[in-house]
Amino acid sequence: MRKLILILSFAIGLYFISSSLYMLMKAELSVYLINHAWQKTLKDKQYHKPWTWADTFPILTINIPRLNQNSTILQGESGRNMAFAAIHVGNSGMPGDSKTTILSGHKDSHFDYLQNLLIGDEIITQDKFKTLSYKITSVKIINSKDEKLSIRNTNELILTTCYPFSDFQIGGDLRYVVFASPNLSYTKKT
After folding, report:
1. How confident is the model at residue 102 (pLDDT cuts 50, 70, 90)?
2. In the CATH scheme, what is the homologous superfamily, with its name and number, of domain 2-189?
């Protein structure tokens, strides 16, 4: 009986370990494939899906030089897409447009570094045609039930994630919102 319990315990443990390894490998592979698709986009200026059955593609990257952090942003604001990377909120503009750009990501993965941003930090955006610089002007915590982010007819960048960062609750009402304005002295063609 002890031998059977030991074998069964070993098999269950092996199952959970292999399941965890599978998820970690899948996550690493998806990052590689998304970044590879982005590099192809930069090369030929055409959007590329990271895998054949994907319903999304990378549309830009953001870089925070002070923190040495980069994020690739996917098109399409579904939870499925956000599982792989930060996303572009569909009805918002793109960096450089005369319309608010809103990017959203998970607080425990793709946008976990938002908690370390400071007013005045630079955010560099790169789409397939241009590279722009933004400066963080303010940070705000909002209750998404009471306050919605406004898409205005102005070139501004908003990064958002759930809040608080240390809370294990998923999908609460609080949002950590970073506002940035263009650094007009910086524009680089890609």
Report:
1. very high
2. Sortase (2.40.260.10)
Under 8 Å between Cβ of 135 and 183: yes
Q: What pTM value is reported for the model?
A: 0.85
| pLDDT of the residue at 4 | 84
Q: 58: number of CA atoms within 13 Å, CB side?
A: 28
* Residue 52 CA neighbour count, 13 Å, CB half: 0
DSSP string, 123-169: EEEE-SSEEEEEEEEEEEEEETTT------SS--EEEEEES-TT---
Q: How many residues does the chain have?
A: 190
> Does 34 score more than 90 pLDDT?
yes
Q: How far apart are CA 97 and CA 85, in angstroms?
A: 22
Question: What pLDDT, on a 0 to 100 scale, did the predictor assign at position 189?
Answer: 54
* Nearest-angstrom CA–CA distance, 90 and 77: 6
Q: Answer whether 76's CB lies under 8 Å from 82's CB.
A: no
Mention every residue, 6+ apart, whose C-beta is less than 8 A from residue 151: 91, 92, 93, 99, 100, 102
How sure is the predictor about 23, in pLDDT bands with cuts at 50, 70 and 90? low
